[in-house]
């Protein structure tokens, strides 16, 4: 904590909540000088380098999903956070647009669930992308009467769909997990020493410039021995990583487009939050309008595919002011099954989506919220 942040925390108070509010406030703006920026690329202070096994993933397999060779990844950890791995944008130049397009065009499609389902019929949310393209084609300065469905999107669930009411997963609310995202996830997890990882559930969060994610722990998965993967695209965010209780003051760090976090081991069940979205630094590859051409190292038959100019025009317009976060988890241990419970159809709850209201409500009422993407808002 810097001196300014430390000054807002008093003995016996909820340190995490105080720091959360410090970085969330707009006036006066907070001091960001203590926020760790891994793009600086050199260890120091709490930042340490993490060595991965370059042979864990072949260069060909990495390139198939748009990743650089593992030996070229810039990988860090934090003192006091064993099991936490930060990979500073391991994506090949030109491959992020494919994943941005998937998050905006493909993954929100039915049968996957999203926050709009509680307000609209399945037919109305069948193709959020096509219903939004026209609205997003207007220049940023143009005034529009209503937000597009894509701009109203706050979360999407994949695979085992998270039940926001009961904070559980179940066998009876499942759709096939996207094969391309599974391929990306198993390469990242294998490079970090977790061979055999199975991507079974995903939650996508869609952040606007004034969105935030409340303080929570991801604990609904039945097997915590597998890591939680978090990928960011678009605008940057302040990420807070705390301890095992809310009295532990968190460490603040930037997450830029393309960055990947792996929470495993002792860091798997730590409190964390996103108090603020901040403008991405200049030159961020995913934000370049001409950045939709795939690199030559990506061969035919790869998972990542070229993005059309038409699609990228919509994607780039969206992420010029928004951030998409993807979290992937393995829910069950190998050979494990869900306990026998009475079937309950999950209700998507707009009260837990990324939004524009104060985080205090969720932080206070749901101290052990499960999803890395159960977000605090009162509106969609």
TrEMBL record:
<keyword id="KW-0479">Metal-binding</keyword>
<dbReference type="GO" id="GO:0035513">
    <property type="term" value="P:oxidative RNA demethylation"/>
</dbReference>
<protein>
    <recommendedName>
        <fullName>Nucleic acid dioxygenase ALKBH1</fullName>
        <ecNumber>1.14.11.33</ecNumber>
        <ecNumber>1.14.11.51</ecNumber>
        <ecNumber>4.2.99.18</ecNumber>
    </recommendedName>
</protein>
<feature type="binding site">
    <location>
        <position position="272"/>
    </location>
    <ligand>
        <name>Fe cation</name>
    </ligand>
</feature>
<keyword id="KW-0234">DNA repair</keyword>
<dbReference type="GO" id="GO:1990983">
    <property type="term" value="P:regulation of translational initiation by tRNA modification"/>
</dbReference>
<dbReference type="GO" id="GO:0141137">
    <property type="term" value="P:positive regulation of gene expression, epigenetic"/>
</dbReference>
<dbReference type="GO" id="GO:0006281">
    <property type="term" value="P:DNA repair"/>
</dbReference>
<feature type="binding site">
    <location>
        <position position="216"/>
    </location>
    <ligand>
        <name>Fe cation</name>
    </ligand>
</feature>
<dbReference type="GO" id="GO:0005634">
    <property type="term" value="C:nucleus"/>
</dbReference>
<comment type="subunit">
    <text>Monomer. Interacts with DNAJB6.</text>
</comment>
<keyword id="KW-0804">Transcription</keyword>
<keyword id="KW-0805">Transcription regulation</keyword>
<feature type="domain" description="Fe2OG dioxygenase">
    <location>
        <begin position="197"/>
        <end position="332"/>
    </location>
</feature>
<keyword id="KW-0560">Oxidoreductase</keyword>
<dbReference type="InterPro" id="IPR004574">
    <property type="entry name" value="Alkb"/>
</dbReference>
<feature type="binding site">
    <location>
        <position position="218"/>
    </location>
    <ligand>
        <name>Fe cation</name>
    </ligand>
</feature>
<keyword id="KW-0408">Iron</keyword>
<dbReference type="GO" id="GO:0008198">
    <property type="term" value="F:ferrous iron binding"/>
</dbReference>
<dbReference type="InterPro" id="IPR027450">
    <property type="entry name" value="AlkB-like"/>
</dbReference>
<dbReference type="Pfam" id="PF13532">
    <property type="entry name" value="2OG-FeII_Oxy_2"/>
</dbReference>
<feature type="region of interest" description="Disordered">
    <location>
        <begin position="335"/>
        <end position="380"/>
    </location>
</feature>
<keyword id="KW-0539">Nucleus</keyword>
<dbReference type="InterPro" id="IPR037151">
    <property type="entry name" value="AlkB-like_sf"/>
</dbReference>
<dbReference type="GO" id="GO:0035516">
    <property type="term" value="F:broad specificity oxidative DNA demethylase activity"/>
</dbReference>
<dbReference type="GO" id="GO:0141131">
    <property type="term" value="F:DNA N6-methyladenine demethylase activity"/>
</dbReference>
<keyword id="KW-0511">Multifunctional enzyme</keyword>
<dbReference type="GO" id="GO:0042245">
    <property type="term" value="P:RNA repair"/>
</dbReference>
<keyword id="KW-0692">RNA repair</keyword>
<feature type="compositionally biased region" description="Polar residues">
    <location>
        <begin position="371"/>
        <end position="380"/>
    </location>
</feature>
<keyword id="KW-0810">Translation regulation</keyword>
<keyword id="KW-0223">Dioxygenase</keyword>
<dbReference type="InterPro" id="IPR005123">
    <property type="entry name" value="Oxoglu/Fe-dep_dioxygenase_dom"/>
</dbReference>
<dbReference type="GO" id="GO:0035515">
    <property type="term" value="F:oxidative RNA demethylase activity"/>
</dbReference>
<dbReference type="GO" id="GO:0140078">
    <property type="term" value="F:class I DNA-(apurinic or apyrimidinic site) endonuclease activity"/>
</dbReference>
<keyword id="KW-0227">DNA damage</keyword>
<dbReference type="GO" id="GO:0005737">
    <property type="term" value="C:cytoplasm"/>
</dbReference>
<keyword id="KW-0456">Lyase</keyword>
């Amino acid at each position: 904590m810097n001196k300014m942040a430390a000054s807002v925390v008093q003995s016996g108070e909820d340190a995490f909540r105080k720091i959360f509010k410090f970085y969330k406030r707009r006036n006066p703006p907070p001091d960001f000088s203590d926020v760790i920026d891994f793009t600086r690329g050199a260890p120091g202070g709490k930042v340490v380098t993490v060595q991965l096994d370059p042979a864990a993933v072949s260069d060909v397999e990495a390139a198939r999903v748009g990743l650089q060779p593992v030996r070229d990844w810039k990988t860090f950890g934090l003192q006091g956070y064993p099991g936490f791995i930060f990979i500073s944008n391991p994506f090949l130049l030109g491959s992020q647009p494919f994943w941005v397009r998937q998050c905006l065009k493909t993954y929100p499609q039915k049968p996957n669930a999203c926050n709009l389902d509680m307000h609209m019929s399945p037919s109305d949310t069948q193709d959020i992308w096509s219903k939004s393209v026209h609205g997003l084609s207007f220049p940023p300065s143009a005034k529009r009467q209503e937000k597009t469905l894509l701009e109203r999107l706050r979360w999407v669930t994949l695979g085992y769909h998270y039940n926001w009411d009961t904070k559980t997963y179940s066998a009876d609310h499942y759709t096939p997990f996207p094969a391309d995202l599974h391929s990306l996830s198993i390469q990242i997890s294998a490079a970090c020493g977790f061979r055999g990882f199975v991507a079974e559930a995903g939650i996508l969060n869609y952040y606007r410039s004034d969105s935030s994610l409340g303080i929570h722990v991801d604990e609904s998965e039945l097997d915590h021995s597998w890591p939680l993967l978090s990928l960011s695209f678009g605008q940057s965010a302040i990420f807070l990583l705390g301890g095992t209780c809310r009295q532990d003051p968190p460490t603040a760090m930037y997450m830029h487009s393309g960055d990947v976090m792996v929470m495993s081991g002792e860091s798997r069940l730590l409190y964390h939050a996103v108090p603020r979205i901040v403008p991405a630094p200049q030159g961020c590859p995913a934000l370049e309008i001409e950045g939709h051409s795939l690199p030559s190292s990506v061969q035919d038959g790869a998972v990542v595919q070229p993005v059309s100019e038409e699609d990228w025009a919509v994607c780039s317009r969206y992420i010029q002011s928004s951030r998409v976060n993807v979290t992937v988890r393995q829910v069950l241990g190998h050979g494990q099954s869900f306990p026998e419970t009475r079937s309950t159809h999950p209700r998507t709850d707009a009260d837990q989506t990324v939004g524009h209201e104060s985080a205090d409500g969720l932080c206070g009422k749901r101290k052990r919220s499960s999803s890395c993407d159960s977000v605090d808002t009162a509106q969609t």
